[in-house]
Design goal:
- There is one protein chain.
- It is built from 9 helices and 3 strands, in the order H-E-E-E-H-H-H-H-H-H-H-H.
- Helix 3 runs antiparallel to helix 9.
- Strands 1-2-3 form a 3-stranded antiparallel β-sheet.
- By secondary structure, it is mainly α.
- Strand 1 and strand 2 form a beta hairpin.
- About 5% of the residues have low confidence.
């Protein structure tokens, strides 16, 4: 029996080795996007020599389909819509603590995915996933207890920042810097309102982190947009270097997330 186990383990390892050789990930090409038979895209990423992960580009990042739905987000959003349709109001809608836990855990994995997509500039996917996470945290704010809701809501500033950047980047791809500026301005206003909420509810630490990191990032992004088209060739080359460094930072953060052993909370700084 022991020998059978060793033989089976050997076949597994050999199969994994062959798969990795075919995918051909390396330091210069740590990401591959594969399309499978059902039409879904699967992102295979190797942030270091010993870690390989696969992330589904749509639905749940792990590819699971809970109760036949694309995600728990879709399932509970549908549950809310059905409740509102049957009762004519959202008032009284409830989820159990375990259901909130499921939503938050899924949102964290969605966060890992949009961090990856930001690194490879798939901004439509970043906008979609940040839209979903904002919906979840606002839903918790509306219907969960304050203690449960805050587990997610404290990271709303980060979600707004990434959502605003994604929208602005999409506008820049359409050669529309004016709309990109409007998207960043809207994000700055939303983060300012969130900071005000934090102060009123005596969450000073969250307000400080949000203002110093996420609000500052959007203000800096706005300054770069205002200067768009005015830099000479040398300055543009410097901007390209900064952008490349930002991509490296995102992939480094992704590597840390993929290597974590403990199950973390929703979003992290």
């Amino acid at each position: 029996m022991a020998n059978d186990t060793v033989q089976r383990n050997t076949r597994w390892v050999q199969a994994l080795d062959r798969i990795l050789q075919v995918i051909n990930l390396d330091e210069d090409h740590p990401v591959r996007i594969l399309t499978i038979e059902d039409g879904r895209e699967v992102v295979v990423v190797q942030p270091n020599a010993f870690t390989v992960s696969r992330i589904y580009a749509t639905g749940r990042p792990d590819g699971a389909r809970p109760h036949g739905m694309d995600s728990y987000y879709d399932m509970y959003r549908g549950k809310l819509e059905k409740y509102e349709e049957e009762n004519g109001t959202r008032e009284g809608f409830e989820l159990t603590e375990e259901e909130w836990e499921t939503l938050f855990e899924e949102s964290f994995h969605r966060y890992t995915r949009y961090l990856l997509f930001a690194g490879i500039k798939r901004w439509e996917d970043v906008q979609r996933d940040t839209d979903a996470n904002l919906f979840v945290t606002n839903l918790a704010r509306e219907f969960a207890s304050s203690e449960i809701a805050w587990r997610s809501y404290q990271y709303k500033g980060y979600m707004i920042m990434m959502n605003s950047i994604a929208k602005a980047e999409l506008s820049l791809q359409e050669d529309d810097p004016d709309t990109a500026l409007q998207q960043i301005d809207a994000g700055i206003q939303q983060i300012g309102e969130f900071c005000g909420e934090c102060l009123r509810e005596e969450h000073g630490e969250a307000e400080n982190i949000t203002r110093e990191r996420y609000l500052s990032n959007l203000i800096e992004f706005r300054s770069d947009l205002e200067a768009l088209g005015t830099e000479d060739g040398e300055e543009n080359e410097s901007d390209d270097t900064d952008e490349e460094q930002g991509d490296v930072d995102l992939l480094t953060e992704l590597e840390q997330l993929l290597n974590e052993v403990d199950s973390p909370d929703l979003e992290r700084e």
